[in-house]
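User: Predict the structure for this protein chain, please.
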Amino acid sequence: MHRLRLGFLIQRASQEGAAFPRQFWLLSLGVFVYSIGVECALAFETLYLNGKLGVSMTTVGFILGLAVFAGLPFQIVGGALTDRLGRRPILFFGVAGSATLCAALGLVHDLTQLVAFIAWEAAFGWPMFLTASNAMVADLTSLEQRTEAFGVTRVALNAGVAVGPLLSGFVLVLDPSFRSSFLLGATICCAFLVFIVFALEETQPGRTQTTPDESARRRPSLGGYGVVLRDRRFLLFGLVTLLPLYGFGQLWSIFPVALEKAHGTPPESWSRLLALYALSVTLLQYPIVRLVRRRDSMHLMAAASTLVSVGLGAAVWLPFGWATRGLVLAISLGVTLLIPISLTVVSRLAPTELRGRYMGAWTFVWLGGYALGPLFGGLALDVLGPKGAYVLVIVAGLGGAALVPLLRTGRRPTEPL
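Assistant: Here is the predicted structure, written as structure tokens:
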């Protein structure tokens, strides 16, 4: 009986996997490798700056937040270049930016120089990776598959988030200075660069079906953002999503320091919590997306906003222990909804020929909200203390949960299935 059940599950998984093209699975594998590298290093960035270099959390928050804000205009250019040059070159450039910051954290000890590298990565690293990889997923899948496809890539991403901090946790025992962890992250990111060159193909529609001259004539110019700026559905959706992103943007930056100040948790405890979060998202992401794929997107976004913000706030307020772990699970459940559902909504609104621009604009919105977390969260932590600061997180998230069901976004009639 058990063998029959196992055989059925293997057959079902094989059928599910065959629904997506080979390049999609190669991209997902690359995302997993990249995520390990990034999280080996950047998951401990604020602990290093605050604990080892003695930088106040207000300053750390301003450094991270302002770096992201300074990099936002480049996401507009990045979206246009993703349509103009293709997804693959921008993906390569973004991963190289992340590798550069990881290496700098391990080799550079001057704060001014580190700020420059942080700003570089905020403009040309992770954001460019997001824009290009999200466009690739949309290129490779039909509209009906898209929520599940974004869910799969989030599984790959969060599997790496689980492995990276645990790997660094072992390295930190041998080298508490963080240097080896940062350099390990840079090395793994460079491995993904090799993978992009030798394993991934360009996915932009029309690029491989035409001659180079024809492809160049069909590519849109570097402008073309007027359509995005006139899309009121997209703009309103982005504004409301900023509210839960204020809390989510603190998950890797202010939140570990808030836990440390509220409960005295050491870096090793944070690495285990982060691994629990990532493992939970990895296991829950695909089945949850499959379960709710026909539900109203705006109601799912409201649930996500509530789970993420209340989970973060309650984890700071309640005593550290099993309750904290349960709340981390609630946060992970919220994130399994927040990211793929929001990306699916944006992909429904985006015309095919402007997909890179919409994803670039969405990266702008996403990182703008993400920057609000460290920018104001660090200041709130120093002024209000951890509990006061996370009351603001709860209020912002519940505000987003109340507003997002009032929005309605639909598929464009020209969107191919």
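The CA atoms of residues 245 and 356 lie 22 Å apart.
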